[in-house]
Design a protein that fits this description.
By secondary structure, the chain is mainly alpha-helical. The chain is built from ten helices and no strands. Helix 1 packs across helix 4 (60-81), helix 4 (60-81) runs antiparallel to helix 5 and helix 5 (92-104) runs antiparallel to helix 9. The longest helix is centred in the first third of the chain and has 28 residues, at 2-29. The chain is elongated and about 60 Å long. The model is unreliable at 1-9 and 200-217 (pLDDT under 50).
Length: 217
């Protein structure tokens, strides 16, 4: 029993150390570029020594990758929790939840994007989302994978570009909720088009998407 308690304390201490290092990196990226930050400076800001840092990470890039993984995992959690694939005819609940999730971490996104280090984050999200959506849709619709991936990549690139521009703006002209609402409507149109590509079950998906738009207007 004592060993279990000891192990739990070590796990909590380890998680606390990791969070301190990641939080320190985010705060420093708000002040300077990644290339201008040293491990010694980060360790000092995180209140850990260099040895402790290297016990967990091999470089600053590893820390950044960990931060990006945390953010992408939160997006994936929303994607799965809102059952996006089961409700492609009405993606609004998903984008509402996504907007709420992004608001909770808005400052982190702004810092990463303005520091120019967000590319890997969106690459992870787009790659994961593409695979997730294709696997789900292909179970129901007969879609040429090459064509599907091409158009889906275009849609995902547009979505990530829109959010990137919003978080990178000092004074966005629209709210995050309004942006998510706009993207939702574009996704509805994209769902209709992708359904048409399948040649099977398109009518049902198009009808559901059109109904969702009419009810929302």
């Amino acid at each position: 029993m004592n060993e279990i308690i000891k192990e739990k304390k070590q796990d909590r201490r380890c998680r606390k150390t990791l969070e301190s290092i990641k939080t320190a990196l985010i705060s420093m990226l708000a002040e300077k570029k990644l290339a201008e930050i040293s491990v010694s400076q980060l360790a000092e800001r995180a209140d850990v020594n260099r040895k402790t840092f290297y016990n967990h990470y091999s470089s600053l890039q590893d820390v950044l990758s960990d931060v990006e993984t945390d953010l992408s995992d939160s997006i994936f959690a929303v994607l799965q929790k809102e059952d996006f694939l089961e409700n492609m005819g009405d993606p609004k609940p998903f984008f509402t939840a996504l907007s709420a999730s992004l608001k909770n971490q808005e400052q982190i996104y702004r810092i990463l994007i303005r520091a120019g280090v967000e590319a890997e984050l969106f690459t992870k999200v787009r790659s994961w989302a593409e695979d997730y959506i294709y696997r789900g849709v292909s179970k129901t619709y007969a879609i040429d994978p090459n064509i599907f991936h091409f158009y889906l990549n275009v849609v995902l690139a547009q979505i990530s570009a829109a959010y990137t521009e919003w978080f990178g703006s000092d004074e966005p002209s629209i709210s995050l909720d309004e942006l998510s609402e706009f993207i939702c409507r574009q996704v509805l149109t994209s769902c209709q088009f992708l359904a048409e590509l399948s040649g099977q079950g398109a009518a049902a998906l198009i009808h559901n998407s059109s109904s969702a738009v009419r009810q929302d207007i």
